[in-house]
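Same chain as my last thread, 457 residues:
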Amino acid sequence: MAARPLELIVYTLIVTGRDGRPVEHPKARSHHESVALMASLGFKTPEITLCRGVEEVRAAVERWGARRDALPYDIDGVVVKVDSFRQQQELGATSKYPRWAVAYKYPAQQATTVIRDIIVQVGRTGALTPVAVLDPVTVSGSTVSRATLHNEDEIRRKDIRIGDTVFIEKGGEVIPKVVAVVTAKRTGKEREFVMPARCPECGAAVYRAEGEAVARCDGSACPAQRLERLLHFVSRGAMDIDHAGPAVIEQLLEKGLVRDMADLYQLAVEPVAALERMGEKSAANLVNAIQKSKAQPLDRVLFGLGIRHVGARAAKILATAFGDIDRLMAATSEELEAIHEIGPAVAQSVTRFFAEPSNRALMEKLRGAGLSLTAARGGGGTALAGKQFVLTGTLAGMSRAEAKARIESAGGRVTSAVTKKTDYVVVGADPGSKADKARELGAPIIGEQELLLLLGG
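reply #2:
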């Protein structure tokens, strides 16, 4: 610790018996006694004040507030505790906090400075965050030159402009933020901020969904989003590529071996083997797993693309409805919304994604890499499209999981509860209460043989 240098300040003492349970120490029956004992043993301990009554607590809080700037470390408040350990045990605690202690937070320290510019940062999920570039100023013991402005609505609400003099403080004494504008110091030369129409990282279109405050970049090749997008693409629910963990993907990006999902399929064993903790066998396993994933059906690819609002279920519905990627990319929002279970949010997200040229280029790269961009066919094709099923009881010729897979491959959906929207309740041996619920609601009840007929045999 001396080399770092680090210091240890011990603020509490727990004494236990051989069984690990807390026991009372004769010299530490209270918090202030335990601190004194630790100090006598040579430990560095915090300053504490023993108060006898609420007025003494108020006075101590005020004294510490006046000393904040002179302390060798930052504080944002004080903690008031019951001194007796016995009383602490009697008071106990909730699942979130002790009943024998309460924190008092001091008002955040503020300073004034000038906003020289507002830049936009792109997060790992594509969210665009405006950030104020400030004249450097000292706040709570450190120099601040930037402060987050959160989103465009927050900027409009506070009427923040480039060139404004503003009050800033540290939220929780940590994160700098703009509190308010000093409007009296405006000169008329200040400029309003406008969120860019194109992503500053990749140039893709920026969009803001209705009802949301955050603007986003939808570019699949956006450098700021590459890691998260690649990790999602290789995940078990998407392309299910073994041996492609976060550490490996991070190295592939750092070494420039991949820039997007399609680049994974161009990897060779030799450069991958040169990565840290890889070796030739591990590299061969990864490359083989990547090549194997080319056979994944369209719904897996769609889910792996990370299109907003398109989860595994929506991806399967879209793949079944359109059959191949070209028909899906050409679909309008109206055509998408006409599909059962596809609402406006999904429809708009899909059309917006495929309207972006960089995303269409990625699909062509994936096609060129040999991926299967057609839907998996099986069972009854789209015979059960839009139909909702509930399974109850034991089926004779197949397991519940097999029945669910066959229904879904035919375009149907299996839910866990019987509702007015349920089209069929499939009843096997020893059915549960779901069969009673079906009769109560008048939902059609069928057996295994009738299900097979619906599936096409």
